[in-house]
Amino acid sequence: MSYPAVRQQSGLRSRRGAGLAGVIIFHAVLIYALVTGLAQGVVKVIQQKVEVSVISEPPPPPPPPPPKIEKVVQQPTAPKPQAYVPPVVNPPPMVQSQNAIQSVTADPTPQPAPTPAPAVEAPKGPVSARANCSHLESPEYPSKAQEDEIQGVVNVVFSVGASGKYSGDASFNFSG
After folding, report:
1. CB of 165 within 8 A of CB of 175?
2. pLDDT (tens digit per residue) in 102-139
3. 34 is in which domain, residue-wise?
4. b/e code 136-165 from CB counts within 10 Å (16+ = b)
5. Does 24 map to a domain?
6. What gap in Å lies between CA 73 and CA 136, rounded to an integer?
7. How many structural domains are present in the chain?
8. What kind and span of H or E run contains 18?
9. How far is Cα 156 from Cα 162, in angstroms, rounded to an integer?
10. I need a labelling partner for 14 at 20 to 30 A (CA). Which of 31, 40, 82, 131 fits?
11. Is residue 21 part of a domain?
């Protein structure tokens, strides 16, 4: 062991010893003070009567007076007018005059109807789509999906309006 190492150890021991001696002296003085009655002033302060006064909460303020309700005086309304009913007028009796037609002659024979124009063929209705797409070439199935054996069918149903545009109603069915 070298000299500086011994010196550090001895310094460490003296520090510990000084700290221990200080704690022992402090406790000895404290015990002496309590035994001889030096702390009686503290005990008297602690034993003094404590006056407690209960402070009650102030009563809540009275509620505000209810608002005054003014009665609305209804003004007399005019009676509803009666619906106008026109008086019933009896028509004068019909009198036959001498100028009246006495006999009726038959209508002249009708002319035959003209021949109708040749019928024009109506345009064809909307084209119906096939129910499945098996006639279309299918794209190559991803290799990862084949390895994981992922498969299924998707059915899409949608409406096309008269203008040939998508009308907004669609339904999707997934299986697999």
Report:
1. no
2. 666 666 677 777 777 777 776 676 666 656 667 777 77
3. 12-54
4. eeeeeeeeeeeeeeeeeeeeeeeeeeeeee
5. yes
6. 84
7. 1
8. helix 3-36
9. 20
10. 31
11. yes
